[in-house]
Amino acid sequence: MSTVINCIAIIGKQNNPLFIKNFSNTHPDLKYHYIAHTSIDVIEERGNGVRSLDQYLGLLYAMEDLAVYGYQSNTKVKFVVIVSVTDGVIRDADMKSIFQQIHQAYASHVCNPFFNQDSPSMTLSSPSFLKSIEAIGTTIPISN
Amino acid sequence: MDLALNLTSSCRVRVLLVPVTPIKKSTFLRHVELVKQFSVVRLGDVTPDLQKGANAKFSSQVFQEGQMHFQFLTSYRRDHAHLEDFQPHRRIFGVIGIMDCQEWKDKNLSEGYHHFVNTLSNYPTAVATRCFAFDPTENQPDDTKGLIMIPNVGNLSFYMSTMICDFASEILSQFDNIASRIENLPMLESPLPRAHANAGYFDQAHTAPNPMLSPQPSASTPTGFKRQAPAPSPSSIKSPLQSPMAQQQPPSRMSQPPTPMPTQSTSSFLRRASTMTANSLSTSPPPMSKNGPLPPIPTPSLSRTNSMPLDTSKTKRRTPGRIKKLFADFYLLAGRLPDAVSYYQMAIEMTKSTSDFLWLASAMEGLACANLLLEYLQGDVGHIVSRKMEANANSADVPLSPTQSMEDISLKPAPSTFTDLLDQYTALIQYYGKVHTSATVPIPSLVYAEACIKVARLLLATWIHGGWTDQVLNLVVQGKLKNEKAPPPKPVNYPMPRFEIAEWVMRVWSVSLDPLPLLDQINVMTQMSTVLSTIGYQRKAAWCMHESIHSILPLLIQSRANVSNAKDLAAGLDQNGHGILQVLKHICDAYGIGEQHVQDGGALDAIDTPARDRDSSPNQTQTHHQATEQRRMGWALLQIDVLRQCIAISEALPDYGSMLYYTTVLLKNLYEYIPKDEQIRLASSIQRIVAMGKRSGRVESNVNYWGVNIVSHIEASQAIPRKAVYELPMLDPASVSARANGDPFIYNPFAQKKNDKDRVLLVKSELCDFKVTLTNPFGFDLELQHVILSTTGVSFTPVATSATIPAHGTVSLRLTGTPQESGQLTVRGCIIRIVGFAEQEFLYDEGQKKQQDQPSISSRHRDVVKYKYSGLQAIEHASKKQVSDDAQTDPVAFYNVQVIDDQPLLKMTTTSLLHGAVMLYEGEMTQIKMVVENIGHILVDFVTLSFTDSTCNEPINPELPMEQQYEMELFRQGMPVFSWEGTDQVGTASVGKKVQLAPGAKMDIIVKVYGKRGCSGGTIQIDYGYLDRQSTAQSLYTRQLYLPVLVSVYQNLEPLNWDVLYLRPHCQSSTAAVEERTNNDATLMASTEPQEDKDLVQLTQSLLDLGVDKQDYCLVTMDIRNTWTLPFDVTFKVNDQDSDDHLSLSIQPGWTKRVVLPVKRMFLSEQECQEPIPSLQPNKQYVVSQSLGHPEQERSRLQMFWYREKILEKLQAHWSCPSTKRHGLLHLRPSLRLSSSQLSILKKQDIAIIVNLQGPSVKSLTHRHFQCPSETFVSMQVTIHNRQPRPVKLILRVQPVQSYNNGAKEYDLSSKLLMQGLHQITMPEATADGKVTHVLPLCFLSRGRYEFLYHVEDVHTRLICYDHDWAIVDCQ
């Protein structure tokens, strides 16, 4: 069994949206924008807590048929993955590896010396980055 | 409809308070507050049921410590009717009418009572009714049956509590009836969620089971009514959800006759429908109306046919457990907690065994509530030991803490209760989640959502108070989150993380909220946002608010449509809308578009103070300006969506002020993200809103809507050169001396430079230009109706223009105006009126731009300690910072321009030039005449001219020898191309001239032009001004006129081959010698010979005639070539002291002529020769020569230089052209170079030897040529003339030689010449400029020609001086 990633969102350290990619066609983009925005609340609490050694934050919350997973890099860049809820359980290891792939893609994009990380209106739109996000694949295996 | 949001909701008996009209709203609310004080009734106080006594099922006397909780409502909707049978606490058990006797003074009270009774039909579930009449007057008889008069005298609260207890007793006895009816039910169905009822595709079979329960409430109702009111028709009091399928069950009603099903169902539906419309807030039509006309027993779909019998049997199996659960619910309502607990235990067991999860979970909820209440009672009452034991005996399998807490009643409630509660709820939520696995009917999402919110609120209350305490328990029972009176202690270090609370809230979302009625959705959302915002999850709270607003919107629109006909629409909506607008504000804050973070261009002020005086606009613009400095923050896409929603809401209200505000905020702050067409739409909607707002009188007309500063740059443009004004420092003695002392350097790189280049001076009452750059950041064209400059300072008359700025474009405008006085003019910005909008001033801050250029480091280091805030905290701190910074920020630096007094204006009317060009021969001097006219309106009293020409610009290489540098300087400056009234003298500075040129008068200016080689053009600059002002200004101002002149200089005559020759006395032979020398020059032409010969003869003759010592002269020769096409006459002039010779010759085109000039040899004293080479540049950089030559070489160089200067001074040549009458100087300098051999000719010897032969028959033929007879004694006198400035001691050597005609020379003269003394004699010392003479007696023995050679040698320096002429003696 497997489920699909509906959306991948990257939020900057100033809580500015860097990138939102909607893989599904069931919801409008705006909905994912809202979900990503509200997930900052949870990320901020969990990420700033004691157990911040782990960058993976696990399931942030579930909403209707969507489950929101979070991950925060050491530089407070937040990664949010939204999947559709199914009966099965998504293993943390699978989720972690997806986050690590996103993080990797982001890190290699940030390595670009011409990339201004602190500009507030900055968004991730380089083709190579988009390609690497596409390459992650949207299916996650789940176990019952 | 209120939701059951608290843990203890399920123990509350709902009682509706209805006003009996007529009654004032305030009076009604006052009485409601009064009644609400009696919401808790101790069972011991309840009037015992007299009929049954303690045997009654819900007797209040069995558990006297228990409490009944009433929930008094003032509004009621039947949205949750389908759940009433599942959760009895949702029902309205009682209705209390409230009458105000004051309103019934003249009427019969019973009339009102009847009115009340009639309305009761709206509340079919009410089992007990009362009608309280407050504030009766003396004369109102208390005779109406059923009406209870509450006197306002005496112990009101005691009276009221008695009444309420009586009321409670009645409800309890009615519970009895209901319970007995429930007991008899053969089958009890789960509630059918509205989603199923609403969904059209669900077939009858599925909807059918739901109303099976309805007999119970509807059955109980009639009894209530029968007792107190005229019973309504049975069909009308039936539960509206009753469907035809219900009739399949044996009717359990006692009093209801079986009626034909179709009619019954229809009527009940109609009833239901009418209730709905009466409430008028419902959005969805009655769910069953579609099903209504269907046949009573429909054909079920195939899938359902199979499952239905199964379903029915299952339901039958489960029914006993469900009945137990309902009993427990009623016990809970009745306050008999021990019974409730035991029944719940049973229900839990039974439903568990039949895996009836919905009822199981609900029973667990009830149990949790009962346990909580028990614990509360223990803490509160503390003496219920006996009953407790009994109650807990039944609940052995449930972990229940109160059993242990009997001994330590006074202690705090054990925290385990709290964890137990959580555990129970966690479990029951899971059961709720499993409902769909065991039942065909899904769980009602409302129930689920409520359960989640209940836990969330419990956790929140605990969190707020920092732990599970008595106080919290108290509050939970009361259903409050916190005590309003005593602020709770700050939750410090409480281990419960906030996300656990949030997690419970989030669980609400795990069911879909969409099927819920709109109002419930809104309620749930509001509750969620309350909890979330309390724990600081601002974003989530905002999202919930956003969603709930989203749900409210259709209601608003609908209500607006409903009341649009009403006249007093505005007044009513003002109040309602205010709350929503507040919510919108909160949402905006959370999304980073709160009021302090956006620029609204003053729209907000317009809302708040519509009638405000606009005088304070500078202040306002100031703040607005600072707002733009702030960086925009937030999530643009979301902000746009939120703002759109805000606009929609305020449009629905309608509130024009906030509509305007949100529209402007959206357009101004987020225009970058909005597509073009929407920008246009927004812009036009602003106009529309203003128009509408004006009509309704709520928006002031002159509001600025354009907060985006479209003025990006303002600069005064320099006037055209003819009109530009130049500032010159006024020369006063103090400043001159200061400058002299100040700086010793020609160029000081460290000196502060005045940046005068950009400075623009405006002239009073003259039109001036400003260059204004306007930027349009929007996606549509901005049409500017008129644009003028906004200025302060001196008065200024601007000229308006209009323009259109294209979308995303920039436009440069030239704005003009006339300053009316002199002084400082401050340009604030532009006042722009955009078509369709109010006029607005856009400021231009020059200081801001400068700051951008150089980031101010000082301000960065000003704050020593800096904190970094993340998320929404940053917003709060940013706003604080802004406040603190306000005091320090510099005021807006406006652009300042100096306006000076009137200046005169001159115009050059005519010049003597043709095409602005002049042609000259080299060395020629002509004149240019210019006529200037004063076209200004004041006097010109000062004129000065300055010139530049094309030859002035070449730099001089300082590495060159000094002589060459002097040459070049002389070329550049020695002879200026242009000169005016004496400026042609070298070294004269240009000086001004005082004139009096009245307005309109004309003046001639004559400029001389000199034909200088290599000059191609130049400029004549006339500076003029009016200086004779009374003011003590530091500087004076001039204007300038320019006349560019093209100059062509042609070389007409070319001097060549200059040379200096000895002038020899031996006529024939010396001429030949001269020719011999000059023939060496290749350029010499044969054709020139005759004239030269003639000249030479003439010259020699003239010299001989003069009889002067020919040794004093030398010959200067020079070729002059005519390179032009016209003949020229050349006149040479030699400025010797005594003679004034001049020589004229005419040269034909293409010819070369030789000029021979006798020039006196000259001698310059040592001092003159050692003068350093002068320089024409006073501020010349002095470079020490790299290679310092030998002093002797240096001396000779200087000597060479000074002799050349001397000869150039002596020789002057002019040319004239007879045919064109032109004349000019012939410039000899470039062609005249002096070689050392030429110098030796030109220069007189330092030590001269003068030889003379004396004797009786000696004849002097020519210079040093003597004739004497042989064998006679003659004496040769040799005189040494020392021209040196020092005395010299010399050795004279004389050597006679006999010369034969063939050129052979005979040196041995012992037999031919007798000579006394030695050939070599030491002379006595010759003083400076003194002479010594040596006499040498001679006797020639043979005839012939003898030549005497001689030289002198300095004794000290060994320097030998020769004489180029030797003495010749012809002996006969």
From TrEMBL, chain A:
Pfam hit, one: Sedlin_N
Entry's Gene Ontology cellular component terms: cytoplasm
Source domain of life: Eukaryota
InterPro entries recorded: Longin-like_dom_sf, Sedlin, TRAPPC2L
Signal peptide stretch: none
Biological-process GO terms, alphabetical: endoplasmic reticulum to Golgi vesicle-mediated transport
Membrane-crossing residue ranges in chain numbering: none
CDD domains for this protein: TRAPPC2L
PANTHER family in UniProt: TRAFFICKING PROTEIN PARTICLE COMPLEX SUBUNIT 2
Stated family: Belongs to the TRAPP small subunits family. Sedlin subfamily.
Protein name, as recorded: Trafficking protein particle complex subunit 2-like protein
Species of provenance: Hesseltinella vesiculosa
High-level lineage: Eukaryota, Fungi, Fungi incertae sedis, Mucoromycota, Mucoromycotina
Automatic annotation (TrEMBL), chain B:
Location in or out of the cell: Golgi apparatus
Main location (coarse class): Golgi
Disordered: annotated segments: 204-317, 605-628
Ranges for domain Trs120/TRAPPC9 TPR region: 423-696
InterPro entries (alphabetical): Ig_TRAPPC9_Trs120_1st, Ig_TRAPPC9_Trs120_3rd, Ig_TRAPPC9_Trs120_4th, TPR_TRAPPC9_Trs120, Trs120_TRAPPC9, Trs120_TRAPPC9_N
Polar residues composition bias: residue spans: 213-223, 274-283, 300-312
Domain Trs120/TRAPPC9 third Ig-like: 1071-1243
The keyword Ribonucleoprotein appears for this protein: no
Domain Trs120/TRAPPC9 fourth Ig-like: 1251-1369
Annotated GO CC locations: trans-Golgi network
Keywords: Golgi apparatus
Ranges of Low complexity composition bias in the record: 234-268
Ranges annotated as biased composition (Pro residues): 284-299
Trs120/TRAPPC9 first Ig-like domain span: 709-889
Domain named Trs120/TRAPPC9 N-terminal: residues: 5-383
PANTHER family, sorted: TRAFFICKING PROTEIN PARTICLE COMPLEX SUBUNIT 9
Listed name of the protein: Trs120-domain-containing protein
Taxonomic source organism: Hesseltinella vesiculosa
